[in-house]
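Q: Got a minute? One more chain.
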Amino acid sequence: PSPLRSFVAVTIKVVEIVPPSPSVNESLVELSIPEDVFVGFELVQIDGLSADIRFSIVSGNTKGHFALNESSGILTTATSLDFERIRQYTLTIKVFAAMHPELHSNVTVIVNVTDVNDNRPVLLGVPSTLLTLPENELPRKLFMVNVSDDDSRIWFDPLFSLQVWPSSNCQANFTINQLGEVYLAGSVLGLGLCRFNLEIRVLDFQNNP
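A: Always. Here it is, folded:
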């Protein structure tokens, strides 16, 4: 007799195995840096635990102050920082699989900018020319110097000093106190018209050398 045969159809479906979202060591990183760090200064390296991952800044970097290496996850400064303008940045960094960008984790990086003494004090209220000086009522307050400084108050403890250049054959004693008040402390000695050039100096922080 002839052999008998039966048939069955089998369909094989190949299903892509989707890996889990990349994981990171820390989801929140906070650090502090002085405002005078150089451009390109390395802040932190985001540490991903999965292979073949990429990194990108998705928020908090609208002014482009920071740069992130897409492959290494190293975050650096891209511009100069200024404590007097912006004191804190909050960046959101996306860590994603290179082959599956939709699979990602987020890392929040908080960058605190600390102040350094990088602004010169500005003298205000100094007259360019002073009227004649009567010899009565000595010592006599002539004017007061005000100081403006953009740095924070921890860098502001002004120390005033005064240097005087008199015209020939003239003498007078001028002083300045630590409130910035300039005084004529004694009689003006000399013949004819006397002229005194005053140079006022100020240190914004008294512990400066």
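A: The first strand starts at residue 28 and ends at 34.
Q: Perfect, thanks.
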